[in-house]
Amino acid sequence: MSATLFSFLFAITILTLTPGFDTALVLRTAIAQGWQRAWATALGVTLGCLLWGIAVGLGLGALLMASEIAYNLLKWLGAAWLCYLGVRLLVTPRQQSPAVAQPAVRQQGYLACFSRGLMGNLLNPKVGVFYVTFLPQFIPAGASVALWCSLMALAHMLLGLVWNAALIGGSHFFAGHLQKPAVLKVMDRLTGCVFIGFAAKLALSRR
Prior knowledge:
Blueprint: H1 2-17, H2 21-33, H3 35-57, H4 61-66, H5 68-91, H6 103-122, H7 125-134, H8 145-178, H9 181-203
């Protein structure tokens, strides 16, 4: 049991530290919009991991493995969502920091950041496919699949929050210089290109 748990934690740590869309989204939010909104984004991303784990435990994740139609549908929805985020950043980049934004706009922004993180994760079928092929390897014989998948996804969520805390904390030192209007505009457009690249990669991916 100890060896199994160690192997799981080691593998999930490597997965968490691997740069991807989630990392880019959290970093961009932390630098351009502040640490509070970055935490809202991180909570959305990591909650998506937990929901995927619960879905896999309930057997819903197996549908992505068995049905080409279900996989492709979710894949194209995810690619469209990432492309939308990227194009929006390219067309309407941010031109002011949250420090000068109105309080009402800031409050709405927290929910928007949380939703971006959550939907970016939930609409990525590769997360579901990964969980459905990865998590069963670490479930003890005779144990509850639903319970263990949920617990392992919760561990992934907590580890993700720790990693995001490091990312957000590190970005805080550069935020003052990177929140200038001209820099924000360039950074948002570069991030938009990155998001479109992730969208293309997801759209062209196979199970």
